[in-house]
Amino acid sequence: MIGDFGWSNSQYRFSEYGEFLRVVSTDYNELGQPQHQLSIFRSDSTTKELTLISQLPNEQQPQKKFLVTAIVRSW
After folding, report:
1. pLDDT at residue 5 above 70?
2. Domain boundaries, the chain
């Protein structure tokens, strides 16, 4: 996972739903603009680790400006 969680509105950074942990992290490009990423993890009971299930943006779904806003509002 790239970026950090930030702490100003931490309730919008993590969300648990069933067996999934959803994390929105932010990194900054060379111009200082935020680049948001959604990562979804599942707990692996065998290894006791979190396994990355999916991330946005990705090659099939490149970043869109409205992506993180829409996701955060749906939580």
Report:
1. no
2. 10-61
